[in-house]
């Protein structure tokens, strides 16, 4: 893979990938619905190991029973877990949603903080979700490292790590903060479309010439 790339090469590679994918996927954006900050937070928690499509559908269903965070707290963990069951890991997710909702209402006065350390205090929320919230809600530069980003960044040689926190650090070190939010969207779109986990379409890949991990 590309762990041997110099920092200068990584900077060039990241910028080239960004520019080409920006043209290739002009409409790339976050595919979780962003109707209001609270329900976006709920969607972010539900998104672990679940498709964004299913998450959006499930939250639409949830909203037929609740109007906001107080209703979710009144509903309780058991009933909530039944509704979010299609998203998988539903018991843990219900527990985390209730715990986070309680913080949202009682500690944050129903406004998601703009700094990562406060957000990370919530149960079930790691850097991926925290960065997603900062970027999508406040346009604060933050890099979301999901499974697609992890794979694409590794194949391009921007990181040699498999640890998301280290990947975030490695990629942030060779990119301008102004690129981070969009780069996340672009790598996800590209990872879903061309740089597939099992069958990457390297022959038709727009990054073929700069990819250290190309298969053919
Ligand atoms: S050349 Fe292949 S492995 Fe490299 S980025 Fe393109 S699709 Fe992915």
Structure description:
The chain is mainly alpha-helical and 216 residues long. The protein has two domains: 7-29 and 143-210, Endonuclease Iii, domain 2 (Orthogonal Bundle), CATH 1.10.1670; 37-138, Hypothetical protein, domain 2 (Endonuclease III, domain 1). The protein contains ten helices and no strands. It has helices spanning 7-24, 37-46, 52-62, 69-83, 90-106, 116-119, 127-138, 147-156, 164-173, 180-193. Helix 2 packs antiparallel against helix 5 and helix 4 (69-83) runs antiparallel to helix 5. The model has no long low-confidence stretch (mean pLDDT 95). Iron/sulfur cluster (SF4) binds at residues 155-156, 194-195, 200-202, 205, 207-208, 211, 213-215.
Quickly describe the structure.
The protein is built from ten helices and no strands. With 216 residues, the protein is mostly helical. The chain folds into two domains: 7-29 and 143-210, Endonuclease Iii, domain 2 (Orthogonal Bundle); 37-138, Hypothetical protein, domain 2 (Endonuclease III, domain 1, Orthogonal Bundle).
Strand content: under 5%
Number of DSSP-assigned strands: 0
The appropriate CATH architecture of the largest domain is Orthogonal Bundle
- Which CATH top level class of the largest domain fits? Mainly Alpha
The span between the termini is: 13 Å
Q: What is bound: which ligands? A: iron/sulfur cluster
Average pLDDT, rounded to a whole number, is: 95
**Structural domain tally:** 2
Total of helices: 10
Shape: elongated
């Amino acid at each position: 893979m590309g762990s041997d790339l110099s920092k200068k090469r990584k900077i060039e590679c990241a910028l080239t990938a960004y520019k080409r994918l920006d043209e290739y996927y002009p409409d790339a954006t976050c595919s979780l619905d962003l109707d209001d900050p609270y329900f976006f937070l709920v969607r972010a928690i539900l998104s672990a190991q679940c498709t964004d499509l299913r998450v959006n559908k499930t939250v639409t269903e949830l909203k037929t029973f609740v109007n906001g965070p107080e209703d979710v707290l009144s509903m309780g963990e058991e009933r909530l877990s039944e509704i979010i069951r299609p998203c998988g890991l539903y018991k843990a997710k219900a527990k985390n949603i209730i715990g986070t909702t309680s913080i949202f209402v009682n500690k944050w006065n129903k406004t998601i903080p703009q700094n990562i350390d406060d957000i990370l205090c919530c149960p079930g929320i790691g850097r991926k979700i925290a960065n997603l919230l900062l970027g999508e809600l406040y346009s604060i530069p933050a890099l979301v490292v999901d499974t697609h980003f992890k794979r694409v960044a590794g194949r391009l040689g921007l990181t040699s790590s498999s640890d998301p926190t280290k990947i975030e650090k490695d990629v942030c070190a060779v990119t301008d903060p102004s690129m981070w939010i969009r780069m996340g969207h672009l790598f996800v779109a590209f990872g879903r479309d061309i740089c597939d986990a099992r069958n990457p379409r390297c022959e038709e890949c727009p990054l073929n010439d700069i990819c250290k991990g190309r298969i053919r």
